[in-house]
Design goal:
single chain; Rossmann fold; four-stranded parallel sheet
Length: about 325
């Protein structure tokens, strides 16, 4: 076990005025590493506001009327595509779905020229590829997933500050995004990965810096039970990502003992919950946990839509939430 930093999460007071002054319009969204605490909180606040106004109040909000977005996907997708398409359309905009086969990205013309042309036709491209502008997913980061995860936890616990999230699984792009975000929200992070599957060293170094700045705990270990101990939230993801299919047999052997079960949760806090970004395999988490009342997986999946909507509204407009600021 390597405890990189520790201590009580320091309370950083953020008022409505401070979040309201966070400027997001026109920004690119590649990684949450580029966004400060107030900016991430504003994205979550806008997302919660849109969800409340549209889902609860049944309001019609054509905030993106007359705008369009190019959705360029090099990797297949279910939740990212559906949440972006339906969300953008619900706000009055027009989503354009394109695969690399549709536009032969980087073949007939350079990726830079394609991006410049697309920007003339749309409000901005949302790309699920390797050099994105709005990052729907890349090999290094998956930032839109983390917005959905933290909105889900804020809704469930009423506040994020002081929570402990335990990641048990692969040191992948989703984990990297957790590491770039948790400390900024006052969240402690424990990470259990098998040897050889640790997160990138540069990401560890940045996460250590953030934990020291915000007074949160960052722990890296190879023991899933150690990571789960006294945790509020247990999180995992696929052990075999797209493009790693040939490694499946070895990976399943290397991750033996990492399946999240009720036994894993027995050492967590009494109010522990479970997250998984989907699609899920039973070797990662058993049915007893996945379909239990502790599982927030399906609210998490729904919040992919509301957070991508909050992100697009924030990057394309000067929208200010109407509901009171949510508690962080």
């Amino acid at each position: 076990m390597l405890s990189l930093s520790g201590g009580q999460a320091r309370s950083f007071s953020t008022g409505t005025a401070a979040l309201g002054s966070a400027k997001l319009k026109g920004r690119s969204f590649l990684t949450l590493k580029d966004f400060g605490s107030d900016e991430i909180k504003k994205l979550l606040w806008v997302s919660a506001d849109l969800k409340h106004r549209i889902k609860q109040n049944n309001e019609h909000l054509p905030l993106l009327q007359g705008k369009s977005i190019a959705m360029i996907f090099e990797k297949r997708s279910t939740r990212t595509r559906m949440s972006t398409e339906t969300g953008f359309a619900l706000l009055g905009g027009h989503p354009c779905f394109l695969t690399s086969q549709d536009i032969h990205l980087g073949v007939n013309e350079s990726s830079t020229d394609t991006a410049n042309v697309q920007s003339q036709h749309t409000g901005g491209p949302c790309e699920r590829r390797f050099s994105p502008i709005i990052n729907g997913l890349s090999d290094m980061y998956h930032p839109i997933q983390i917005l959905a995860d933290f909105l889900t936890l804020q809704e469930h616990y009423g506040s994020l500050h002081g929570l402990t999230v335990s990641w048990i699984g692969d040191g992948n792009n989703v984990l990297h995004s957790f590491m770039m975000t948790a400390a900024k929200l006052g969240v402690h992070l424990k990470i259990a990965t098998p040897k050889g599957y640790e997160p990138e060293k540069s990401v560890i170094q940045e996460a250590q810096r953030l934990s020291e700045k915000y007074g949160t705990q960052l722990v890296l270990t190879t023991d899933p039970m150690e990571a789960a101990h006294d945790s509020n939230v247990l999180v995992t993801d696929t052990w075999v990502s797209m493009g790693q299919e040939e490694e499946k047999k070895k990976r399943l052997a290397d991750f033996d003992g990492y399946q999240i079960t009720m036994q894993t949760g027995s050492v967590a806090k009494p109010d522990w919950t479970f997250l998984h970004c989907l699609p899920r395999k039973t070797e990662e988490v058993d049915d007893q946990v996945f379909y239990s009342s502790r599982s927030l997986v399906f609210p998490e999946a729904e919040n992919r839509k509301w957070t991508i909507m909050g992100l697009m509204v924030s990057l394309l407009t000067d929208y200010t939430p109407k509901m009171p600021m949510i508690k962080f």
